[in-house]
Amino acid sequence: MAEKFFRWFRIVQAIQARPGITAPELADRCETDVRTTYRDLRALDSLVPITNEGYGKGYTFAGDFALYPFNWTEQEALVFSMLPSFVDRSSLPPGFDTAYDKVMASHLKQKRRDQDILQNVTDIIQMGSPAYKEESPNYLLPVIQAILAEKTISAVYHTQSRNELTERKIDPYYLVPRDQRFYLIGYCHQAEAIRTFRLSRFRRVEITKHFFRRGDFNLRQYMKNTWSIERGQGQISFKVRFSPVVARYVKEEELFVKPKMTDLPDGGLLFEVTLNHDREFLNWVFQYGEDAEILEPRSYRESMKERLAKWSRLYG
């Protein structure tokens, strides 16, 4: 079995080094006969996307498959690193030890390079810190590492609404940037449900050894009709008229939902969108001041009148 494994590895390596290599050439590289090479290719077909380009054109890989850099999971890397312990070393063909060492060295080198790239990326991303704290730990790097490795994190989180710290186990699914902040969306083991966490409210983050799977979770579906990050259960259909002064700027907004925008004869803009929560959308509308008029729902229009009356009394 060890000899067969070594031969398969040489076949994959040879195809990668020389796309279009023929079966007789592969047999020569592996020091075996052509019939054995064909059997090896059929066996590898279920593991590696090898394709035959046609008579006399040889073998190549479908798509962008490559043996290096390795795309191993940590479990796969661990299993491969233990391979010499499970085989009869006396039956291994010459060169196995050096080939094995090269594979492991390449994997470790790529792993270190990936870590360096990830560190550089997180260093480039400049995050603000809460106004009430002089220093705030940046847990962006370990959270990204946990997402990529599909590992559960153990965390201490500050829940602002209750002003309390809680210890949680979270399966981190996605990082979502919103309004100069990062939010983590993942499965909370304590709540037994998907939850959204503001990254700056973590007080401790540690990557555990436990793996998770996202299953059929779909971020786009989860965030459907969500203006920014706050999600609700209702369906609120808004209509807002923007003046000609700001219409072109509204069209430039990078939004997370798909509104319907209609140009008006005076150069203004009718903006229609259905959302499951109102607060973040209203704050966005308010920034345009007198250049944004809420038309529907009527109840929100009336609430706006009351708000303006309070502001008038406050500044009167």
Tags for this model:
316 residues, alpha+beta, Arc Repressor Mutant, subunit A, SH3 type barrels, Alpha-Beta Plaits, five-stranded antiparallel β-sheet, 10 helices, 37% helix
CATH homologous superfamily designation of the largest domain = Winged helix-like DNA-binding domain superfamily/Winged helix DNA-binding domain
Q: Which strand-content bin applies to the residues?
A: 15-25%
> Tell me about the biggest sheet?
5 strands, antiparallel
Global mean pLDDT: 83
Q: How many independent structural domains?
A: 3
How would you describe the oligomerization state of the chains in this entry? single chain
Rg over C-alpha atoms, rounded to the nearest angstrom: 29 Å
Helix content: 25-40%
CATH architecture of the largest domain: Orthogonal Bundle
Number of strands: 11
Strand order of the largest sheet: 6-5-4-3-7
CATH topology group of the largest domain: Arc Repressor Mutant, subunit A
* Head-to-tail CA distance between termini: 88 Å
Structural class: alpha+beta
Write the element-wise H/E pattern from the N-terminal end onward. Answer: HHHEEHHHEEEEEHEHEEHEH
Shape: elongated
